[in-house]
Write a structure and sequence with these properties.
The complex is a heterodimer of chains A (about 400) and B (about 525). With about 400 residues, chain A is an alpha+beta fold. Chain A has helices at about 15-25, 45-55, 75-80, 130-135, 160-165, 205-215, 225-235, 280-285, and strands at about 30, 35-40, 55-60, 65-70, 95-100, 105-115, 120-125, 140-145, 150-155, 180, 185, 195-200, 220-225, 290-295, 305-310, 315-325, 330-340, 350-355, 360-370. Chain A is globular, with a radius of gyration of 21 Å. The two termini of chain A are about 40 Å apart. Chain B has about 525 residues and is of the alpha/beta class. Chain B folds into three domains: about 1-75 and about 235-315 and about 455-510, 3-Layer(bba) Sandwich (FAD/NAD(P)-binding domain), CATH 3.50.50; about 110-220, no CATH class; about 315-450. Classes of the chains: A alpha+beta (about 400), B alpha/beta (about 525). At the A-B interface, helix 3 and helix 4 of A face helix 11 of B.
Amino acid sequence: MSVVTDPKTGLIDGPVHDRLAALSRARGWYGWAGYAAPSVLDTVEFEYFALRNQCALFDISPMHKYRLTGPDATAVLNRLVTRDVTRIRPGRVGYAVWCDEEGMVIDDGTLFRLGAQDWRLCCQEPMLTWLIEAAWGFDAEVRDESDTLAGLALQGPTAFAVLEAAGWDVAALRPFDHAGLGEVMISRTGFTGDLGYEIWMPWADATAVWDRLWAAGGPWGLRAIGYAALNIARIEAGFLTAGVDFQPVHATERLHRGKTPFELGLGRMVDMTKGHFNGRRALAKARPRSLLMRVDVEGFKPAQGALVYHRKRREVGHVTSGVWSPTAKRNIALAHVALPWATRTPPDLWAEIYTLEEGRWDTRMARLTPVEGAFFAPQRARATPPGRT
Amino acid sequence: MSRFDAIVIGGGINGLVAAAVLGRRGRSVCLLERSDRLGGMAGAEGAYPRMAHLLYNLGPLVRKDIGLGARDWPFRTVALPTVALNPGGAHVRIDGTEARFVDGRPHPDAAAYRALVTRLGGYGALLRRLAEAPPPGGDAAWTDPAALKQMLRLGGFGRALRQMGKAEMRGFLKVLLSNAYDLILDELPDGPLAGALAADAVRGLAMGPRSPGTVFSLVYRHGHGGTVSLPVGGMAAVVAALAEAARAAGATIRTGTAAARLLCEGDRVIGVETGAGEVLMASRVLSSAAPLATARMAGLDRFDIEASRRMRLIRARGTVAKINLRLSALPRIDGLPDDLLGARLLLAPSAEAVETAFNPAKYRQMSDEPILEALLPGVTDPAQDAGGAVALSIIAQYAPSDLAGGWTDAARDRLLAAVVGRLAAVAPDLPGLVAGAEVLCPDRIEAETGAPGGHWHHAELGLDQLLTIRPANGLGHYAMGLAGLYLCGAATHPGGDVMGLSGRNAALAALGDGP
């Protein structure tokens, strides 16, 4: 169910396209849900280091956003996702995954509880028809806010200071809190594993909000960034990208391309005690076939796309995301590895990395060392009130 | 609060059979019927038939499993000949495989008809192996005794298929999924004889004889030799016999008691709350209500989103209206000897006419010239005439459940006029004899029985809703996902037609015990 862009229409402008276009020295655009989104505005290195050392502004408006309201809205969501959403209090945001009847992950996203029966779901894949299907027979309304609600991600150690300078006091927001501040809603959420906020506002207000942040951000090293820099940060944080680290099952055509939450390392997101939810019966019976592992890759060549071998002989998986982490100073990757090889000790897993150096292809076997937890998880991401630098 | 091993929801044919089968296997059973009358679509006030009026496929297998022994049903049945009426021409009398004109003259197509019907009977015997058993497949490991049994049965089906001989097997597989119209007209010239077969192929279905899959439904109808019989004492006698069997097996039958809610604990059903708020506990609940209605009683949130979508999309577009006329005297039918007045009278002058009658139904209109199956039950069984009046029981097709504008009084009157007008073509004195009429359109049938769309089989017998995918993918094995909850109505394999096999198979499935 990926978004198909009509070639006649081409990519369309997002809410802050004017600002992005003016900053785009690299002129690198890619299609994100039909919108022209920057992959790079300046250089990946500048943008990445701004994100990790100062702060960065990234337009997340192309994300799909859905509003669920009505007396049964909470029941519908609890039927949809694998975690118990009643434990997400109003004013809080929760990460969630949802599965098809076979327990295969359809997508993941964040759930904003705006009121007792008022929710917003933000996710990567188009989900309107599925949500309508989930809500059928329930007293709940599903509204697609994808092209009416804009979002800007302000991420990095000085993000709090920028908001403060812009006149928004978010000192009291703990991670995964959200609050309305005048015309905008600000949540302490993000896709970088660092201190960061997401600012949500009506589509038409996005440029004004951008300008307000931009004016305040100068002294704090604020930079606009594209997806390439963000992607490094999210791999460091160990976050998954739909379509890369797992195949959203509704978008697959081949059999058995789906993964269960357990196989994606998201077992903690599955609450088998909360009552029925979609795919529960299948998940109760499911035995994991593989595991999505975080691994440290020997050497410095990114292992993106490499096949994974056990004892350099048996092919047991592949790397879905691999990158040199400038902050962790490690060559890191996420890899699907079949069981039982994923859990053997010693692991004896190897990535076969293809390299192209000035016209010469080569392969090398790089040892993979499993890593527990995120590659990068700074204290400052959790401190409340947050620091300014 | 009472406690049972099993609760059966719905006291139609399948519900009664399920209760009897469970009771016979030593389970304590309580059957809940929301109306005051048992029988569902086969139910009747007194002997006079109301909806269903004849038996096609009520087989000895059900009788054995509900404990009525190997002998016979406790009611008498009279096999009826079929008369294919031919307005303005010679009517054709059909007895099983034999066709001749009603005046005794041989029919020129008798041999072709015999060959075709014999062939259909052969296919029917083959398909019956599949119909009587729960549909193949399922999650069980192949070493599981039930799965092993199933494989043997499938093996038996394959062997029987092979034993047909190569040419015949090829023919079977070639026609099985195709349309009845082509099959019939390949062998017979179009006319009342072909029309009778075409009408039988589509009765109760939202299909015309040219629709793919109608060969299957024709074979289905001929699954037990194609004999049509009238129960003496009416459908009420059939229902009474089944209810008696259930009671004899120890089942408690409660009419006027609707199941309002299914009580669940964790991922299993633990009982039923009635409309009056009474709680009945049971570890198994078998529902002959529609799948979606059953799911709603438990709460849709107990079912996967895909499952509720499939239940919502089950095709159940009823196309049959039941018209019960009271006549002041027996009608005279031109060219029909009096001794054949008690026959099953089919007014389907040709296969073409059946298809033509279907055309308006595609666009939510009723047929201008409906196809009729008419019966004067009192001729054979005087008890079935209502209070001095002659009963004429008519199944009229097509009267789609989703009629544009709805089934208003005017629409019902129009249908009645069309039906009476049609009959007047063969029985000119009939309109003058009508002393009373009851028109049961699909909306009424649905309201009274709960069958979605007032559909005969609760779910269309289409190729997309058969066997393992009847009534829908994932529901093909009577279980509904929620542990302890089973479907036992006609929506499940093999379907309706006053057959009881759905109820029997569901009961066996609930017992965790393949046949």
